[in-house]
Amino acid sequence: MPRRALAGLAAASVVLATALLAPPAAAAPPPDELSGLLVEDRAVRVEKEGVGDALADATGQVTAFVELDTPAGVEVAEDGGAPADVLAAAEVTEAKAAEVVPADAGEARAAGAEPTRIATLTNLVSGALVVGDAAQLRTLADRPDVVSVRLVAERTLDNAAQVEFTRALATWQDTGVLGTDVTVGIVDTGIDYTHADFGGPGTVEAYEAAYGENGSGPIPAGSFDPEKFLGGIDFAGRDYHAGGTPAQRVPAPDDNPIDVNGHGSHVAGTAAGFGVTPDGATFRGDYSALETVADWPVGPGTAPAAQLYALKVFGDIAGSTNLTSLAFDHAADPNGDGDFNDRLDVLNLSLGAAGAPADDPESLQVGELTALGTVVVLSAGNEGDVEDIGGSPGNGYAGLTVAWSIGKDLAFDAMEVTEASDPALVGRHAGQNSVAYSGADVTAPVAYVGPTFDGCTPFTPEQAATVAGKIAYLWWDDDDATRACGSVVRFNNATAAGAVGVLLPTEERIFPAGISGNATIPGFQMTAATTDALLPEIEAGTLVARIGPSMALSTRQDVGADTLSTSSSRGAHGTVGWAKPDVAAPGQQIVSADVGSGNAGATSNGTSMAAPHVAGIAALVKEARPGWSAAQIKAGIMNTATHDVSTEPGGDLFYGPARVGSGRVDALSAVTNDTLLYNAERPQQASVGFGVVQVGAEPVTIRKAVTVQNLGSTARTYTTSVTESTTSGEASITASPASLRVRAGGTGIVTLTFTADPATLARDIDPTQQVEQLEGLAREYVSQVSGRLVLTSGGQEWRLPVQAAPRPTTDLEALPVAFADAGAETAELAITGRDVVADGWYGLVTPLVHAADSPRLDALPPNAQTSPSTLAAGDIRHVGWASTAPAVEAAGGDPTADGYLGVGIATDGDWAVVGHALQPRVLVDTDGDGEPDVVSIVTKLVDTDYTVVETYDLETEDLIAGPELAFPFAGEIEAGSFDNNVLTVPVPLAALGVEPGTQVGVWAAMYSEYAFPADGVIDQVGPFTVDPYDPPLWFESNIGADFVSASFAGATVDVHKGPGAADARILALHHLNGTGDRAQVIDVTVPDAITTTTTLDVESAWTAGEETLFQMTVSPGEATGTFRVYDGETLLGETEVVDGAGVWGTASLGAGPHAFRAEYVPDTALYAGSTSEVVEREFAASASTTTLRLSASSARYGSPVTATVTVTGQSWAPSGPVEIREGSRVVATGELTVDGLVGTATVELPRDLGAGTHRLVAVFGGTADLARSQSARADLRITRAASRVTLSADTWTVPRGSTPTVTVTVGGTVEGAPAGTGSVRVLLGLRPLDVVQLADGTAQVTLPAVRSTNVVTVLYGGDDGYLPGAAAQVVRVG
User: Fold this and answer.
1) Bacterial Ig-like domain: from which residue to which, for each copy (predicted)?
2) Active site residue 1254
């Protein structure tokens, strides 16, 4: 089916062919049912900006981690080593790093050396961060002292007080716990330690002095509070940016972690800021005595007494970073003495790499830190409701990962209504100021232009008159995809029209982004509640308002407490054994320290803001429970996060663990908690994940244990249950026992049992998910069973997230394909085995021409720093291909425009999700030079779960096709997006630009930044050569799809034979089979053709041109087809085989040797061709006769005479010249004109034949195929003719005494007669003058001086042809 590219259209609309049909409960679906689920057009319609640049390969300069074979500090300590031993091991690692990569960052900046060693890690893992060319870095893996070399995934930032909402304030009041003596590390953009929130001087001047010239100088004395800010390190330097220029990728570390971007300061303030009171001073009072902090410009952090340590890993422009592993290493031993007891208690990372695998190596470093005792708190990411988009390190098992919920009474900028027809509206209302304006406030009436006038076009004169001197209300489209313009354009147009401000509405509950505006006039965007309240007054023209910067953060509004930001990332779904996130915390409109302002606050949104709130709670728990391990602190916070997060304010549909973990955190419950629930097998993980569970023919039951610790002083009895957030049919997770009694200080076990029956499974979607992410196109999703283990006792509740992703499997295989006989054009690919019976799941098979097998990649070295799951999922084992071109042509279409080359890939391991960290690619060499010219990349459509293919021109990097769906059902059916290892990449033939008959080279590759070694390519197979228009086999889908067919016991797929079919094999991809059983190589049998024997009998006179008959027979006589007759290698003719025989004749064979053979050409592959024995004979030339006929037998000299020569061939037509001869002399020649076997030449005889009788014959010299012949004699008698003599001069009247010249001409009397020969005698008067020889019939005579009139006389004596003649002329003297 054609998939026309529609990228670039503003609207995104793809219509399904039919509605989703409910499948039967226990029987395989008929093919037409699956046909109804096919997407009508695979092209995905998006704005060009939404496509993104999928051509970013891991080539050129990259950052890599080079793992060394030296022991890490934690390994030395675990083996009983003392701090001195740890330091000694670190020195060994430093020396080894210098040996492997001699150039350090300082040398590189001075001399431009590459590769460059950024830093060395010694504590959690041994190795060096290195910047350099990818090709050079790959060679480091060959060293015996290098364990691994891997790319480092770039991390980006995940962006008054909520302490009352989460009961942190109540914790201070009730327990006095403030985080005292707890150290909190902030891995971020640094900290503005001069800010009043951190006890600094609280002035702009102090900040500027601390930053100095470039932020790299020493920290000035007196610029910070040593009780709050413990110091830190800047790993990055001012200009560092991991995704920037080569120079920017090399960090310049220093000891001053001063913040410039502001993200880190905001995060630090949320976690552990003192708070800034309304008078702008640092709060240093009694936190337990506070009743509210709602009116503070900057409220206290969750743990206001905790101490802060800055680990700056971003440059001053923020950008991205590859330096987080350095921060981990440093956090383990900040003072570098080899003793890990000074490790940081809590570490906050409000950053991440979206879509990274859950077993990213930095997640393992988080595990190491957790084991040491550091609670690592991580943001879940801001990529929204996309499967597995929550990235590393937040998706690792050990960290405490935080989602972004909405708090209560959020701080907003304000607009003030000064006049309104309804007095109740006078006062401040919530919204957000435009950020570009910093001038004075403006008070003016609000002008209403119209309900949908957005200001994206210049105002008309009438509209300008309406808004002149007023605040212009301009409509704002909340849909990013359809919004006509941004704020800058409309503000500029409003300014040009004379408006003094701009007022914008929204219907969104929370602001997804800020408003820029311009620097000339202020602007304000109202919240949805403000819009609803004020719009009637605006429409009526009765509203007067004040807007401007002075009212920043001056009001609060509750927009829906305990709801979720749509931007909060959905977590990992458990492919590698755990799911994320863990908890949710407020991250919307969070007010915290504003960098460089001295004592002001700023608002920010994101999981970046939610994570430090939880980091502060961790610090509180750490103080309250100093003996708890990091895993226990994590579990305690999760267990007490019992506040549900709903999809809408006051709603009763709540988010499950995939979005919010246990629920929204509660600081007081966490601090006072004395019961812990956690995964007994993996305590650091806490939650219980059954992962992806394959369900075959029989019900599946899996049990996992949860440890219950009663740390209270009395025994407790707990009631156990499991709530249900998402379902997969009737699959369930249950808890036992129903009641558990645990003694004081003791532990108990709750057993979680996952049960799935294939007969009752269903592919349910999370009820909180959008069914369509693009209009009319079902989203791709993972069906999960999830909820929480809930324990209750005495009115208290504890939670633990539980999850499983059941996946029903088929057990299908394809039988060998056998064509019935050599002549059969089609055969059946038959499917046998066990069907799937689960509701919403379908067996699918994609048959392909087998192209290549690939061995399993070598095992990774021990402790190699990469993602093992990604490498296994990128390890190619089989590759095949297919083409839709024959099917398109058979249907009357144009395969060059609508055909597809499909390249199928089967890998060794399953991917969790394809298109994020792992990208299949197909590269095609279209011009035959051995280098790829086009690449098709499997990726994700930005901000969605749709798996798409984008095709690029490798030379120009232009997108030439797509994005279009990789799977033809979109999300109607799970065909390979998740937890699979097979897929087919569709490559448009139109994008290749090759014509039929062209062979192309193809590579299949798996790309990932986790490739080992670090070159971006996990595995690659090819090139193999294919003809996309004429494959050896092509497959006719039984559901009308391009490549895939319905698969169930008894299903068949028609296989069509092409050239080379007998040598082909089939690679069948069974999409729903179990792991390790999805790729099957199948033999194809094409029976040998029936042997034939051909005979030839030739009947002929063996003379050129004579009729020759060729009589042929073929055995067996049932063979059909054509006989072809050859003379040597020249095809003479052909005839149809009739009843095993055929006759063909010709009369066009020439003389000479001939070698005849007959070839039998079958018209069906059932029979083999055959050739007769050769018949060799010599053909004689044909005889000829020649006749001569003259137009006259006698003629006077000079008269025309023609001769007609006729040559007649006996069996071959004459050709060429004939000659008229007199004796041996050739008198004349002529060219034959042939008609049939007769050739005629009419020849005019020469006019100068002399007088007498001429005996003439005609001679035909013959050809290779016709013999020579000569005519009988014909006589021609020539008689002398009268001559004509003429005289001429310039004038015949001459002056006296002149000597005129006279010309004499002698010829015949007939036109065209020859010139006379011989001589003439000239007389003047009676006096002879001279005898002159004729030349070409003329002679000239110069007369002597003429004295008087006289007569010139010329006498001609004649020659062989002319009789004598004379002429006279009077010469007058005048």
Assistant:
1) 1191-1276
2) no
